[in-house]
Amino acid sequence: MDLLSDHLVRARATGAVFARTVAEPPWGLRLGGSIQLSVHTVVRGRGYLWLDTPGSTVELIPGSVTLVRGGVNHYIGHEPGAECLEPEEFRARHTHAGPADNPRATVFLCGAYRFSGDVGGGLLDALPQIVTLSAADDDPLREVITLLSRELVRAEPAQQIVLDRLLDLLLVLAIRSEFRRGATAPRWYRAAADPRLGPALQAMHENAAHPWTVPELAEISGLSRAAFARVFREALGQAPVQYLTEWRMTLARDHLRADDLSLAQIADMVGYSSPFAFAAAFRRHHGDPPGTWRHRERVAAGARMLTTHPGL
């Protein structure tokens, strides 16, 4: 499994909310910053998306996909600066909109994704606040958008399952395209393409529990120890052992949040000889022992579940 696949699988992206809307002007929708990642595509007609900051407006047209990273509110409407309603009020007002073939209507699709843990957070942090992708004729992204458009024309059995799967494909292709072309791609993504570093990174990600040493990683990469350490630091901004430790801590945090594994099980999975060694390393990095950290995170997650909902 390549590194991007590894991150996406561990992030466990889910289509938490999905909506297909037909709206006639005037229309506008406000979406809160609690949505981790929003995906918007116009199937028919056009619209505009903007943030609260000046100069942030982008046009939404068929054949393009726009991603919005969470943290700030964003708005979509029939024109820039249109009056925007909260999701529940918007749905109530446009429930009885005309048919999708109405020449005045805009048909658009919104997906709101959640990502698990710090692996997913790292993927999102690498994206710009707004990403607009326009697919070339031979780009798989265009084919997925076309399939989405066709699927939305009429109701069919199991349509929600088809749309969820197509949205998953859309998200993966969009992230891959942005990382491939973007200066904001994570360092690990660019380093994985370097034949001097890719094999060592792959090894660390595939088996974080292995007691890797710099000479062993250098041998995998076909470099001397000194050359490997130098190239690694230049590409990733940290020493190989530091990178491995950070990756182990990232995996540990996600296990502590999401699983009911014991500390001994997590220690074994992320490369520590005992729960005591794991707890000591975790405390050095986070200031608290893993059990205390787990309890605090779960209490905070429960509070967030009660107070936030994308509500598309």
In words, what does this structure look like?
- By secondary structure, the protein is an alpha+beta fold.
- The protein folds into 2 domains: about 5-180, Jelly Rolls (Sandwich); about 190-305, Orthogonal Bundle (Arc Repressor Mutant, subunit A), CATH 1.10.10.
- Helices cover about 50% and strands about 15% of the residues.
- It is built from 13 helices and 9 strands.
- The strands form 2 sheets. A 5-stranded antiparallel sheet has the order 1-8-3-6-9, covered by helices on one side. A 4-stranded antiparallel sheet has the order 2-7-4-5, with no helix packed on it.
- Helix 4 runs antiparallel to helix 5 (about 160-180).
- The mean pLDDT is about 85.
List keywords for this structure.
49% helix; elongated; Jelly Rolls; Arc Repressor Mutant, subunit A; 2 domains; 312 residues; five-stranded antiparallel sheet; alpha+beta; four-stranded antiparallel sheet
